[in-house]
Amino acid sequence: MANLLTSSIGKKITMSLAGLFLAVFLLVHLGINMLLIVSDTYTFNVAANFMASNKLIKVVEIVLFLGIFLHIIYGIWLQIQNWMSRPVGYAKSNNSQTSFFSKYMIHTAVVILIFLVIHLVDFFFKSKFMKDSMPPEVAPGIEDMATIVIAKFKQLPFVIIYLVCFLLLGFHLFHAFQSAFQTFGFSHKKYTPCIKTVGVIYALIIIFGYSLIALVIYLSPNY
Hints:
Blueprint: H1 2-6, H2 8-38, H3 41-53, H4 55-85, H5 97-103, H6 105-129, H7 145-153, H8 156-183, H9 192-219
Helix pairs in contact: 2-3, 2-4, 2-8, 2-9, 6-8, 8-9
């Protein structure tokens, strides 16, 4: 078991499992954030506070951070191993779509990591550890996260940074999605096209979903 976890394939499997878990979280997170534009701020605050206070969600939160950590560490580890095993570039460049996306995975990952840190500082850590900077509660025990989110997305530089990061996140997810299933052995002419299609749809949902929230809040006078 230990050999499996420390082997190259073991790291890939662990990273893929963590990545798929994070992919599911992104959809859940998107669904909650969409409440800001399809419902009202109070509903969003209730949902956000449920996610922050529910005991089961807190356990999932720990797993989430562990998944992020493993995904990053193993991703960097495997990338370094790839670089070390290929000290000289290929004589012929591979212009396939897959090689293009895989070539820049580490670059998009670095940008996403920086973005994640900024995002956590702006929202997660503020609500957890900087209570004095939070707006008044909208109801007993319900923090006003909506006001913080809206205030951020009313700043054009912040919106631009987020839109660029959403695009890079989708870029990263497109390749990561199909790569994860390939790691699990789903590499076949019968399954691969379907997996690629689902990966494209998923990446587009993430890009346009999160971007829509930022743009609607920034452009709408109702916020």
